[in-house]
Amino acid sequence: MSNPAGIPAPVPVDDRVSGLGEGPVWDVRSNSLRWVDIPAGVVHDSDGGSRQLPPPASAILPTADGWAAVLRDRVVELDGPGAAAVPLGAAERCNDAKADPAGRLWVGTMSGDERPGGAALLRLDGAVATEVITGATIANGLGWSPDARRMYWIDTPTRRIDVLDYDLADGSVRDRRPFVAVDADAGWPDGLAVDAEGALWVALWGGSALHRYTPDGRLDTVLPIGVACPTSCAFGGEDFRTLYITTAHRPDEHGRFAPDAGRLHAVRVPVPGPPPTPAVLPAAAGGAATGGA
User: Fold this and answer.
1) Most CB contacts within 10 A, which of 12, 76, 95, 116?
2) Which annotated residues bind substrate (predicted)?
3) pTM for this entry
4) How far apart are CA 155 and CA 46, in angstroms?
5) Is 190 a catalytic residue?
6) Which of 14, 37, 190, 195 is catalytic?
């Protein structure tokens, strides 16, 4: 396996077990990490706190004044003066979501039964959700190159990472094309994060590893993790050189559960990533979601 930088294996950094941990994001205001347990509708914080939301809760996103969450078919602002609730059209269930470097929100969807063609990639234009890519199955990992001229996106069952030319001024994309094809024995590409060198870290569901691909699509690093299903990753820490990895409480191919399945993991990496861009949501359109803190 390739690991030229000699990066150690990720280790668990939190005792809580998520059925489907996802959507890690660093909170620059509290210097902590937040992530979601999708089916439970719980937002976890690495400082030990949690918040209950209406399940499923697919993603948690910083805003200028607080936080927003992506729920089953809408985005809700949890804190701040806006308290916006933005519907996402005909989405059956939202999945991965991120803000682009301008704060424009992108949301991937999936059908409840994961049927082929039942998902889409949405862009939020004000309070309007626009379907940019249709005919997907599980719209997943999202990321942008450091110069914001490329957008990366994953439709997991294709076992492929796609790249699109990106116009940051209006959020338009063009020339979708394959960037990397993941070997069948390596797992299924899930969430991703882009580092300061423009390389992609990708979590491999069922593959017990993360891959790092250089901007030209070369597999640079294979980083094993001691659980079957890593789901996503994000940079954090004061220097943004800690790669945090969410995982799912799922068995391996032999039906065995690793002791640390479903826990948050972390590892120090040589190249940092950027801080998350706060999502820009429209003015208040409804009430905020409520739940225990």
Assistant:
1) 95
2) 93, 95, 113
3) 0.94
4) 29
5) yes
6) 190
